[in-house]
Structure prediction request, 67 residues.
Amino acid sequence: MTAGETGADPTTEIARLGRRMSRLEGAYEHLATKADLKDLELRLTLRMLSIVGVATGLIVAVVRLWS
Prediction:
């Protein structure tokens, strides 16, 4: 609902939304930022590359043992 639909003046509506937002922010310990998500993406990419590297090394070792 907008301020016009409720009949409240905009200042009162902004104050009400501010209180609701404070409760929402207080309910969560941490909300992720874009920087947090970028860091997570980097860590996951590096982890996947290391797993691929280890798997490739194991495959090469097995092939050499059987040759």
Observations:
- Helices lie at 3-6, 10-27, 34-66.
- Residues 34-66 form the longest helix (33 residues).
- Residues 14 and 25 are 16 Å apart (CA to CA).
- The two ends are 73 Å apart (CA to CA).
